Amino acid sequence: MQTQFVIFVFLALATLVGAAGVALSRNIFWSAMGLLSSLVGVGGLYVLLSADFVAITQLLVYIGGVLVLIIFAVMLTSQIQDINISNRSMGLLGGYLVFFVVATLLSFVAIWAPWKLTDVAPVANTTVAIGDGLLGKWLLPFEIASVLLVATLVGAIVIARKEVKSDS
Amino acid sequence: MPHLTLNHFLVVSALLFGFGILAVVTRRNAVAVLMGIELILNAANLNLVAFGRYVAGGITGQVFTLFVIVLAAAEAAVGLAIILTIYQMARNIDTSRATTLKE
User: Fold this and answer.
1) What predicted TM-score, i.e. pTM, was given to this entire model?
2) Cβ contacts of B69 on chain A, cutoff 8 Å
3) Contact, A22 vs B34, CB < 8 A?
């Protein structure tokens, strides 16, 4: 149990330092690296919560997909020489105010609310249970998600492609 | 050494959400705003999995998290495509200067 807590502290630090880097770093590329650290940390926290399948999905989809897309966008939209275009919009003071209000409020609610804790042991092999669930109880949302993914695929290509004018 | 409980995860998630809000509110670079949205979605996911583990039991929270991850991937793809189009039109991705529809 002691090692579990040490690992938790390590992962939480990786998550929060990365998140702070995303929010505060002046270099947009370091923000992307902070996002990487944060996503890896959250994936580790999923493992601590014995959600193995979700943790692997986090690695595959977020770090292998979304993060690579974001880094592509960073490379394509800002010249490497003057990459420091991440200037502020609201002023840091207002931003810090919003941050402290939101974080302390949510933390207090989380700590003081009388959650009804369960003592059910976590599902040991979640892949089997999730596969059964996705093809049984949650079949309709699963299919809707697949239709949405196709729509996204087509939509993203249509938005991002170069317009080709026909001669006729 | 304290025992690992639900509260630990909820506090980490609250701070993660706060940093996400901070990034969305203070950044002008559209890609950085999108990164903040990803942080917010990750905080929500962490909450879902933590509640599923300590309060609800079973895998419902994890399945919900999977759907959120799918939606986040779709949102990132479309959002970045829009950002690339704006960049090709205006040569910058400053969110406070993309006001063509307003003018």
Assistant:
1) 0.88
2) 54, 57-58, 61-62
3) no
